[in-house]
Structures
1.
Amino acid sequence: MQTSKVILLTGASSGIGEATARLLAREGHQLIIGARRTDRLQALSQEFSNIDYLAVDVTRPEDLQKMAQHALTQYGRIDVLVNNAGIMPLSPLSALKTDEWNQTLDVNVRGVLHGIAAVLPVMEQQKQGQIISVASIGAHLVWPSCAVYCASKFAVRAIMDGLRQETDTVRVTVVSPGVVESELADHITDTSAREAMVDFRRVALPAEAIAKAIGWAIAQPDGVDVSEIIVRPTASPY
Ligand SMILES: NC(=O)c1ccc[n+]([C@@H]2O[C@H](COP(=O)([O-])OP(=O)(O)OC[C@H]3O[C@@H](n4cnc5c(N)ncnc54)[C@H](OP(=O)(O)O)[C@@H]3O)[C@@H](O)[C@H]2O)c1
């Protein structure tokens, strides 16, 4: 088993992704990180010599292909993909925020599929690799105002479990966080959903807690597939 791995990570410009980039870089892995806010990625890359960054919008399949190509050109292999990028513009369905519904599905579902498409052929050829997707407790439960977000995360679990059953060489892992401190709720435009989130998110884990779970799943031996980890704040009922 390789101790230093070549890892692609999306959504590394804040929250769970940023914490994961820091933890994996400290552990000595080679990272290629992506997001749209490249100023934040550049700062991480300046802090750690083993972090490369690229401008990546996960709704664009070609951006994921570009990440994979960078890893192959520079390091000759791809050991791990972490599909972490996600958005959560919550609202009740009656608010008819159809653009936000579509955006949620584009980023949270199609973004994961674009990541899988970029690395799966490479990993199958290598006969090793690991694809990790960050889902949510919202992949297990549904709440009012969360229907589309939860649908997107249920879909991520379904896609990942299908992938797990289809491959006997690639390790397939879902990491499902409970409430975590991040910028995720900052982009909610619906007033009622935004206010509900203030109470819902009162008890939250630091992002490092999820980074550690991701790091632990990566550290397992090649023959060990950690299929899903749920990490919640002890004091939270959710
Ligand atoms: N925080 C929680 O309570 C919680 C709980 C369960 C699951 N999660 C999941 O954890 C993951 C990380 O979220 P977070 O909590 O760390 O929130 P966050 O701080 O808002 O981070 C989200 C990340 O996704 C990136 N992103 C958004 N749209 C993107 C796009 N189109 N292309 C590429 N990157 C994009 C953002 O980067 P740019 O804006 O720079 O592109 C950012 O780096 C998400 O999948 C989220 O659903 C979070």
Note: Residues 27 and 86 are 25 Å apart (CA to CA).
2.
Amino acid sequence: MRKVLVLGGDGFCGWPTSLHLSEAGYEVIIVDDFSRRKTDIELEVESLTPIRPLGERLKVWRDVSGNKIRHITISIGKEYRRLLELLITEKPEAIVHFAEQRSAPYSMKSSGHRRLTVNKNLSATNDILAAIVESKLDIHLVHLGTMGVYGYGTAGIKIPEGYLKVQVEEGGKVTDGEILYPSNPGSIYHMTKAQDQLLFSFYNKNDELRITDLHQGIVWGTQTPQTRRDEYLINRFDYDGDYGTVLNRFLMQAAINYPLTVHGTGGQKRAFIHIQDTCRCIQLAIEHPPEKKDRVKILNQMTEIHRVRDLAQLIAEKTGVGIAYLDNPRKESAENDLLVINDQLLEMGLKPTTLNKELMTEVEQVARKYSSRCDQDKIPCLSEW
Ligand SMILES: NC(=O)c1ccc[n+]([C@@H]2O[C@H](COP(=O)([O-])OP(=O)(O)OC[C@H]3O[C@@H](n4cnc5c(N)ncnc54)[C@H](O)[C@@H]3O)[C@@H](O)[C@H]2O)c1
């Protein structure tokens, strides 16, 4: 049986991905330190959906699917020896790395949050890479990056998949080349993902590690075919001003008739992907690894692009909820254009799940079902930069 470690497998993307891979026939081992659940305690907010403790989730998964997923608590970046021993003992074919602090607003809350995000994310990524080298195993690392490394301005071109073709002119001679697309992070969180890219590039060059970096768009949706199978398997649903992502926040706000919180003019164009497609893309990435001599494989893991105010209008028309145009708490372009190349995952067989009424209604229904768990004071984005 093909074996994978899912680091961060208790989180919003990691949990449904673990179930998806388990159902697809992989032996899955989840590694998580529950830091995301602890951040809920710090922020005094909880997932809108009542997520069960991991042990209970895994027991129910075994009951409904017959498949066993093991779990190990390791704080990646802090417990290097335990991580290394795990690799040596389990010899996984691939590691999927979701285990980072993933909120831009959280990373900008204070100097403490900036430092935590940098220390946590960079130590985690470096420890995984160093452990793969020290284990002497040929393990394919699949990492979740973000479209945000490219920056959220108008590039004026279709954003390529990680590498930019360049021509350098010197003394009348023109040389062609290809470089890592210049990163332009808009928050400390995005900056750590840009730094991750350099770590990958180095370990790939120096140690010939096989690495796939997935620059993912904003994930929306909550349930997948696997998480729907039992209420105990339900996925996390963040709606608060730090961890909630824009489309899910709008759908949840519509469900409780809370005016949709558009920042600025809502002229920001962003790339999106449904959570079901996140799971499929990870499987495709695992099954199409780079060769040993290949450079880091970078894929744009997104399926569609929308302008924030268009999404707000669409949901307002569908549900009758109002729209509140608020001062933008973030430093970002008020309006931008965005074109993205995502050919590689499509060529591997991804059939995109695009924004559709049924899926939006499903998210809204989930939000409505659990609306009594919503603390409306936690909806505004209070982290400013
Ligand atoms: N959610 C999105 O819209 C989105 C978009 C683009 C990229 N991503 C990326 O995908 C990845 C997963 O995102 P998510 O939304 O599932 O986040 P999440 O916070 O819900 O999940 C991350 C999981 O990793 C665990 N974790 C974090 N640091 C750890 C560590 N050092 N050791 C062990 N476990 C650790 C957390 O406890 C949590 O369960 C992140 O790297 C994020 O940057 C997410």
Note: Residues 3-378 form a domain with the Rossmann fold fold (CATH 3.40.50.720).
3.
Amino acid sequence: MNSTILFFDVIIVGGGLAGLSSAIHLSKGNLNVLVIEKNSYPKHKVCGEYISNEVLPYLNFLDIDVFKLGAKKIDKFQLSTTRGQLISANLPLGGFGISRFCLDAALANKALDNGVKILQDLVDNIQFSNEQFSVKTKGGKAYKAKIVIGAYGKRANLDVKLNRKFIKIKSPYLAVKTHVKGVFPDDLVALHNFEGGYCGISKVEDNNINLCYITNFNSFKKFKNIEDFQEKVVFNNRFLKTIFNESIPVFEEPLTISQISFEIKKPIENHIIMCGDTAALIHPLSGNGMSMAIRSAQLASLLIIKFFNSEISNRDDLEKQYLREWNATFKSRLKIGRIVANLFNKPKISEVLMQVIKRFPSILSHIIKRTHGKVMKVK
Ligand SMILES: Cc1cc2nc3c(=O)[nH]c(=O)nc-3n(C[C@H](O)[C@H](O)[C@H](O)COP(=O)(O)OP(=O)(O)OC[C@H]3O[C@@H](n4cnc5c(N)ncnc54)[C@H](O)[C@@H]3O)c2cc1C
């Protein structure tokens, strides 16, 4: 019987943006890191694929040049209501468009180059006792580590195991995403509302256009299928009708996800340091989940390196500092994001809001600034 259990400094559960960014950062701090990711790379994910420029200095620190990967620079923004009222603005900070297919794989390759071990398996149990974690996978593997980062995304089997509060609340949101070829400006990200949802449009590498919409199940369930829903609801917004009808799909079938929860979560559970969506998910209408995921990875990594260097003397202090910094960085951003998303969810209020924004365009850049972070500093 082989009873040797491998021991790592840090095990990261989930190899998306948060998990892989932490893995690269921690490997630069000479820590012995294992990432356990259930899927292989590259893989498409349901996501708007527009990232705020706030993360660029940090991605450079991680040795990721998104423009070498073909990312499109984006500095213009359009917002339309269900009835097709349109507002255009410049993005105060700007961003870029890159597919998750491309970005996650580039991060994974970088992590491997830096000596990080990546295991393809599903984590199905994490236990903490005697100051160390035991992590078990569906494939029957077991590992130990001093620190575990939970970076397994919006919702997973582990949330049930950890008895997290949000998992008991049914979420009505689902999302659909596809890539198409067609005519759309490289430098624009558009958010077009329709009854019960909104659709983000922006270009990514290879001149593909990402179309990604989020809606609630109550709107969706009245229709036969995605095509029927799009025809009868989504296409009531003239901008969406044009882009969907005048472009050629790249995917055979659109990707879909359901049970997207924007409920409040705890950034630390059972001593696991939660990063990215595992700690909180902001409404894509009014915030950038991807930059939050990457930023939280930096936050966690800096503190974990200090912990291993004994600059932070014990676990309790590590957890308190992470919680304090996480709240200071994200709490108000999440709150404003939630308020804005709720207002735009109500068609009448959103029409009035758009009228107000049209008269006072500075309100829009104020909202964008409050729901996005400042450019990240590399520390
Ligand atoms: C419809 C929609 C549109 C969005 N659009 C945008 C946008 O345009 N811009 C933006 O900035 N943000 C957007 N977001 C938010 C963004 O997608 C997320 O915030 C971001 O993906 C978070 O990254 P993450 O690393 O936390 O999670 P993920 O990228 O989801 O990574 C989690 C990883 O964990 C793995 N995993 C899960 N469970 C296990 C397990 N038990 N064991 C092993 N591995 C596991 C998964 O396979 C996955 O690879 C959008 C979100 C939605 C829902």
Note: Residues 13-19, 36-39, 46-51, 122-123, 151-153, 156-158, 175, 200, 212, 214, 260, 276-278, 281, 284, 288-291, 293 surround flavin-adenine dinucleotide (CB under 6 Å).
4.
Amino acid sequence: MNQPEAADPVPVSNSPDPTPERPLYDVLVVGAGIAGLSLAAAAARQGRSVLLVAARDTHPREFRAEKFSASEMAILDGCGLGVGARAVSTPLHTVIEGRWGRLIKRMASQEFAFHYPELVDAARAALPTAVTSVTGRISAAETGAETQTLTLADGRRYTGRLLVVATGLGEGLQRELGFERRLVSQGNTLVYGFNTAFSYALLAGEQLIWSAEAGGDGVAYLTLFPLGTQIRANLFTYWPRGGTAAEAFLADPAGTMRRLMPGLARTYGTVEPVGAIQQRPIDLVEITDPVRDGVVVIGDAFCTTCPAYGTGIRKALSDVTVLASLLPAWFATPGMDAAKIGSYYAHPEKLAADQRSVGVSLRLRRMAMGRDLVSRFLNLRSTVYRRGQQAVVDAAAKLRRGTHGASATNP
Ligand SMILES: Cc1cc2nc3c(=O)[nH]c(=O)nc-3n(C[C@H](O)[C@H](O)[C@H](O)COP(=O)(O)OP(=O)(O)OC[C@H]3O[C@@H](n4cnc5c(N)ncnc54)[C@H](O)[C@@H]3O)c2cc1C
């Protein structure tokens, strides 16, 4: 469990810390999302003293990632947070893939479905006691090659050797520290999440991933999966928020999905949303020039990716794994200068994970919008296939009609 604030070893007072130059913690982590929690837990497991600063006592009830794979759960297991995460997750064992308007594949695939705020709160409750948690708003941050200091709005001050910024999309601390964010792709993805009228039995333990049937319509795919007792739907699109396609979907979600995915409707029936439809536009942003003394930026705070291909949590946890692997060497020698910090951003695993996620995000968007040669070819192939399939269906129907007609005249 979290250490309660009462057990906080730092004096809680409005007066300045009398010995601010003495690092009290090895690691100060700001942000209690999946990245900050995992890093705090991983560092504590290495024997580091860790202070976690959260903005709130619980994660806001917002729409975020709702699935990840067994490899992400294995990383949480490695930090000691897996038991908590599993307790609020629905295990999925099979993925069924629909493409070009028909089922094409069914294969074993271990994943977990969850509501992100519940996942994060459960992980937070499972933090080791070696992590001291405090909740508050940071009013000032000073960083350097030896010591980092955070001051909260109520005057509490905390010092540490390393500051880890895991604040997701929150920009306040980044601005305070002088980081600049570059907008890579504004309104890159528009994601919808909703419960459906399907019964749980339809997909017990299985998830369906149904790709857009017509190319160039700005849809990536729809995924249906059991979450708790519901069949949940996530629709990933590249529509501009408030644009014609987005408005048409909100006005008639079931009809729009039937029109965009007629093969899905034929196979499973109409996808009828139940209750509120959550929607979230996502910008792709990244930090420019991140290397500086004493501070590391991880997870969405470093860069965001298109959620359609499940690279957000994977990339956040990959940041955690890379950083955790460097900590023993960093703490074995004095100081926390930019040379140490730079080795994190230059780590081959980090570079590969970043390139993969951002590259995939932009390429798949281009494909869904039908904006490059490869996607035009794939879209054409899909159209030819669909038209061919329809011609076969029509011919078979004509044949049946002909046969029935013949038998009617030949008693
Ligand atoms: C709609 C949607 C769907 C998505 N779907 C997927 C998906 O299917 N698969 C996938 O892998 N990824 C998906 N993602 C992305 C994924 O959710 C993120 O990549 C991941 O949650 C990032 O985790 P994080 O810890 O870096 O940031 P966050 O989870 O945002 O955590 C940051 C934390 O820092 C706190 N904070 C901010 N500022 C401060 C401050 N100054 N002081 C203290 N605390 C602060 C915030 O309150 C928050 O608790 C999706 C995202 C969205 C929006």
Note: Residues 30-36, 53-55, 59, 63-68, 116, 138, 166-170, 172-173, 191, 280, 282, 299-301, 307, 310-314, 316 surround flavin-adenine dinucleotide (CB under 6 Å).
